[in-house]
Structures are given as C-alpha cells and as structure tokens.
Amino acid sequence: MKVKLTGRKLLLASGLLFVWLFTMYSPGYSQPTDQEGADQSETSAPESYLLAGLNFIPDDVRERWLGLVNSPESQPYNEFMLEGEHIIRSLGELSEITGGEVPDEEESGGDTYLSLNEQLLSVINLVETKISDEKSDQPASESTEPETEDVDQTAEETEQPEEVAEKPVETEEDIDDADIPVSDPVEQVAEPGIEEIEAMLQDRSTERNEVSEEIKNYRRDLIKKGLKILQEQTANPENRTDPARRDAIAGLYFRFTELTYQESYDLFLEETGNYIDEMNRLSESNPSAASRLVPPEPDYSRVMAMYQKVVDEYPTSEYADDALYNIGVLTSESPSEIDRTNANRIFETLISIYPESNYVLNSLRRIGDYYFQPPINDLESAALAFNQILQQFQDSKYYQEALYKLGWTYYRMSDLPQAVEYFASVLDISYAGDEGGLDAGTLLDIANESINYLGICYAIDPVEWDGAGVDNLAIWLENNPVRKDKYGADVVLQLGDIYNIQLGRYMKAAETYYKFLEVFPLDDRAPEVQAKIVDLYQEGNIFDIERAQIEKINFFTSYNPDSQWWKKNENPATRKKVIPLLEKTLDMIIDELLVQATDAGDRNKYIEYEKYSREYLRFWPKGPNAYKILYKLASVLENKLRQPMLAMREYWQVANEYDDSTYREIAAGRVVAIAQKFNKQEESGRIYVSDDGEILPPLDSTS
C-alpha cells in the first residue's frame, strides 16, 4: 500500500526536514570546502543524481550493481542496464529531498524508497540470470568427469532470500547425461520472448514515470512548505540577529533554491520532450507548421531571484559566493550578449568580494573565455585571467588548459615567441606523464592542438616572424634537448604536413621532411616521411621522375631488413607496417630500371636492374611479384647480359618452384634450349661445362 505524500504527512515531512536541515547547517556542522567541491558544482544534474542514488541503496545491492556495470558480460543487456540506471537516478532525486537519510517504511517517502529498491533488485536479478543462462548454454569443457561437489554447491546457491531471484542450475536432463543421481529435479525457466520483454520494459517505464511524478510533487510541496516555515522563522527577531541562526537560515534557503532549480530544470526537460514529440508529429503531415514551432527555453528567473536573496540578505554566509557564482552561470547561458556581459561582471565581482572562494578558479576560466571569444576579442584581458590561474592554481587540474589558452591568446596577438613557449609548456607536462588531473581525452586534445599550433607558428611567413621556418625550428630544438627528445619529431612532422597539405608550399614541405630525416633518422615514422617525399616528386606538385626514383631507392636502402633503422625499430607492429611499402617500392624501382635500360640499351642499367631484382628475391622469394621478377630477370640474363648459365638456373626456378603457371612452359623450353646449346658447344670443343655448372675454356686450350 502506497502512502500518499500529501496533507499532514507531507507537512510533517517538511517540518522534520526543516529541523534536520537546521541542525545540519548549524555552526557545529562543517561543509566540504575543497576545490573539488567547487568543481562539482558544474556537474550535470543527472550525473549528480546517479552518484547520490548509488550512495542511497544498500551496500549489497550497490556491490551487485557495480559488478554488473564493470562486467563485459552485461553489455548485451544494455536495455536493462539503462533501466537500472534510471531507477538509481530516481533514488538520487529522492536522496536529494530527504537529505541522504533513508526513510523508514512508515515515514513519508518510505514506500517510494522501497518500491525503487525492489525495481532495481528485479533488474539486477534479471541481468544476472541472463548472464548465468548464457554461460550455461556455452559448450562444456573438455573434462568428462563431473564433480559431485559442484552439484552440491549449485544446490546450495539456489537457497537465496525470497527477494533475490534463484540462480539457474543444471536441468534434470543435464545431470542425467553426466550420470549423476538426482533426487529433486529443477524445472528450467523458459526464456522470455520479445513481446514479454517489451511488456516488462513498458511496465517498468510506467512505474518509473509514476515514481518520478510522485517525487516531483513531493519536492514541489516540500519547497512550498519549507519556504513558509523559513518565512515564519525569519520573522523571529532572534533569528535575524543571531549569526549562527542567520547562517543556518541562509543554508536552508540555499537548499530550497537548489530544489527550485531542479524543479525548473525538470519543467524545461518536459517542455523539450513535448516540443520534440510535436515536431516529429508535424514533420511529415505539416512541415510548414513544424518549422514555426519555437523550441522552449528554461526559465530560471525564480531561481535567480532566490539566489540573489541569499547574496543580498546573507552576504557573509558561507553560501553567498556559491549563490553568486550560480547566478553568473545561469546568466551566462543566455544567448543575449548583454546577459553574457552581465555574467562576466558577476564573476569579476565574486573574485573581488570573495577572493578565497572555491569558485575563483572557475570564475577566472569563464572570464578568460569571455574576453577571448568573439565578438569581445579583448585578448589582453583574456591573458590576464589565464595568467592569474597559473599564478594561483599551480596544482589545479586546469593548469595545463590555462597554458594552452595562453598560447592560443598570444598567437592571436601575433606574439609568436610567447605563443611557442606556452604551447611547448603544455607539451612539457603532457610528455612528462603528468596528466594534471584532466581526463585522458581532454589531455590528448590539448596536446595534439599544441603540436599543431607549434607547427602553425613556425609555418608563418618569415616576413611576419623572422623565427619561422624549419631551420629555426631545428635550432630551437637543439637549444632545448629535452623537448627535442620528447616531442621534437612530432612538431617537425606537423610543420611538414602543414606546408604540404594546408598551405600547398611543396618545396617547403620537402625541405621540412628532409630535415626530419636528418635530425630523427631512426624515428619509427621515418619510412612514412620518406614515402611523403617520394609522393611529392612522383605524384605531387614537384613532379620530377628522376628525383622520385632516387628517393625510392633511398627508401629501400634506408629501411630494408639490413638497415640500421630496422635494427633500431624492433617493434613487430612497426616493421609490419613498413614491409608492404618496401615490397611495393622495390617492385616499382625494378620496373623503372628495366624500362630505362631497354630504352637506352644501357648495360649498366641492366646490371643495376639485376641487383635490385635479386634484392627483392632475397627478401621476398615468394612475394606477390617474385614470380614475375624472376622470369624477367632470367630473360635479361639470357638476352641482355649474355649469362645463359645464370639464366638457365632462374628459368629452372620459374618452371619448378612456383604454383603460378603463366611462364612455366616458356621457362621450361628455355632451360632445354640453353642446355642443348651448351651441349653442342661442349661437343664441338668450344666450351667445357664443369660438374658445378661452370662454363670453362676447352680442356686442350693453350691460351
């Protein structure tokens, strides 16, 4: 039976909450004042409710839920996990109202608490059961000797309290197959169908909506009753003059303001949902009407008035700076430029009046962003705000962010030496492994952007900054050896890519890539950079076919398995990435040399062709182009270099050692023809063929 949260019980709950809050905010009660507490003020309401809900459920239930959250086995059941998350958020809302105290069953809110916990347990049991069923459906292990102890243990595990669903056990048929006697066969529960699951989800969604609505009504009445009680308390002259009582009343009023904010936020979400539903309904039937729909905007006017009352009437309380900061945040969310300007003034006022506030850091961040962004573009003021963060908050997780924003600010001010130093300072922290408390994704973005902007700074036209260009970058790195070792290669490569891709300055790009190979010859990305040089000459805007061939040969020579680079870079993944490029490049070299030798009739080119063909066959004897290369090499040896014995050996391999039969018949014919020619020459005494296949002068030769 549900207890309605109305009438005398609601009034009693409001009174009890007032007494509890009055005690909580009395001088003997201490609120957390660390900086992290201030940072949490910007955590979204849904996330804060999720955390509050987790702390509001019994320990054993929380442990089971977190076990499912952290288990990859629960991923196939995301629908149910999301349902559980909604329930926990609802519990978090209830916790917000009750102050984190678990209500007894007879108290207001007790039935709601029990109902939500029962729903959460049902979800947990359902997911655990499905995971167990999934495991039981998997193929059995190779062991064929069942252990009786496992069956006994399984039976014991089924004896669970009534509110926890029994874990699935082996069916009677499974146990029969294992030749184990069964006294009490267990009936296997049928897997729910799709319709049944959808019905369950719909029922839970309905229940959740009912509970959510009940909580909203409870909160609405609680605010009304609480504010009335506060009004009565402030009418007492003693409460208006006694400092401790004034602080307690300020805390209560602040608390009710936060509840009022949540009420306004929920109303905005509801209106947004209605707007989306109406938009979807009209989008097909009446697009014109759909285009005229105006999206809702949150109305926080009442909330801001309540925060302002805390600031005006209780300026020395511990909640005044909190209230003032929240006014600034809500004002800054307005699209109006006037409101954004007013919000900035509020943050500046907070820093001036409450210099020790936990909200000074976030206020400085907002002030800096306000001045930095268009249309304000007051870069000097932005730099002052970001510099103040560096001076006052060296241990903050936002320190690295402030360095990055200062670099960006000085770049926009055309103070490039300063910009370079601040971007480099970001990387000094990132590459030192000091993450500064920021999440990994944010750190990666800031580090990558800092590398990019360092490259952009050095890509500036030297007319604008005489420190630009790859040579100056190389000097800067030589003067900063730690930076050179940590991230110098990243910056040089980025500069080359900026010249090549963004600016189309291809000669500068090639010059920068050459500098990379000069300074970082054994870097794991060196082959990639050499390939960029090849592309610039082969297909890019510096078309030079002869230079392209030279660079291809450099590529193969510098990174083949005999090279110093190969010995230095032992990572299999790095080598694996280079091997296809080596094979492809060498095949291109061989084809080009053959064309050049044929066109010019140049014996030296044929000899060079033979050299690289044999290199290919040495490294990739069964490579994708080995068969073709071997056949062409045999032909060149026979017809151009006049080495028939070597040609015959290569033809023999073509005919006998490859699955491909394209040249098999021709190669076999050439083996026979060359052998017959040798035989005739030997019979006529013109040559002598040794047992090793070596062609020698006639035995009776006197020359």
Uncertain spans, ≥5 residues at pLDDT below 50?
1-45, 140-183, 434-438
Strand content: under 5%
Number of helices: 31
Number of strands: 2
**What class do helices, strands and sheet pairing give?**
mainly alpha
Q: Rg from C-alpha positions?
A: 39 Å
Judging from the principal axes of the Cα atoms, what is the shape? elongated
**Oligomer state of the chains in this structure:** single chain
Task: Let me know the largest β-sheet.
Answer: 2 strands, antiparallel
Helix content: over 70%
Mean pLDDT: 82
Give the neighbour order of strands across the main sheet. Answer: 1-2
Distance between the termini: 123 Å
Description:
The protein has 703 residues and is an all-alpha fold. Among the domains are: 1-135 and 153-166 and 199-235, no CATH class; 242-358, Serine Threonine Protein Phosphatase 5, Tetratricopeptide repeat (Alpha Horseshoe), CATH 1.25.40. Helix content is 71%, strand content 1%. The chain contains 31 helices and 2 strands. It has helices at 7-24, 35-39, 45-56, 59-69, 78-98, 110-137, 148-157, 172-177, 194-234, 237-241, 243-285, 287-292, 301-313, 320-332, 337-353, 360-372, 379-392, 399-412, 416-430, 440-458, 470-478, 481-503, 506-519, 526-538, 545-559, 564-568, 572-600, 603-619, 626-639, 644-656, 664-683, and strands spanning 688-689, 695-696. Strands 1-2 form a two-stranded antiparallel sheet. Helix 13 (301-313) packs antiparallel against helix 14 (320-332) and helix 25 crosses helix 27 (572-600). The radius of gyration is 39 Å and the shape is elongated. The chain starts with 6 loop residues before the first helix and ends in a 7-residue tail after the last strand. Mean pLDDT is 82; it is low at 1-45, 140-183 and 434-438.
